[in-house]
Amino acid sequence: MGMGEKVGRTEARGREGGVCVWNEGERGALEGVLGGVVEGLREGRGEVWRWWLWGSPVGVGVVGGWVVWKGWRARVGWERRREEEGEGEREREEGGKEEEEKEL
């Protein structure tokens, strides 16, 4: 699996499913970006939920099931988009071949 596919899958899951951080600059710039991402993750997760899940095994099961279901939906959607893109590319290639044959 290439980097482009990994980035596409992460972006398909949305902001809650992961964040892509590009390492194209210097170390200081990367540390700043990562610090912002980590702060955003901390702000999005409440302390109440953490403690509630520690005390509720049923809650852990429900939340875990929800996360697995969302991941499955994202994966299926990603694969469907990839197949559609592949079919579009094949149609363009076949269309080009047919035009070449007509010219001959």
How is this structure best described in words?
This protein is mainly alpha-helical and 104 residues long. The chain folds into two domains: 1-45, no CATH class; 48-104. Helix content is 82%, strand content 0%. The chain has four helices and no strands. Helix 1 packs across helix 4 and helix 3 (47-55) crosses helix 4. It starts with a helix and ends with a helix. The mean pLDDT is 78.
**pLDDT averaged residue by residue:** 78
Task: Give the % helix.
Answer: over 70%
Strand content: under 5%
Count the beta strands.
0
Order of helices and strands: HHHH
Radius of gyration: 21 Å
Number of helices: 4
From the N-terminal CA to the C-terminal CA, the straight-line distance is 39 Å
Class per helix and strand makeup: mainly alpha
Largest β sheet strand count, sense and barrel closure = none
Regions with pLDDT < 50 over 5+ consecutive residues? none
The coarse overall form would be flat
How many domains, as an integer? Answer: 2
State the main characteristics.
mainly alpha; 82% helix; 104 residues
List the helices and strands and how they pair.
Elements: H1 3-13, H2 27-44, H3 47-55, H4 57-103
Helix pairs in contact: 1-4, 3-4
Q: How would you concisely characterize the structure shown here?
A:
This protein is mostly helical and 104 residues long. It contains four helices and no strands.
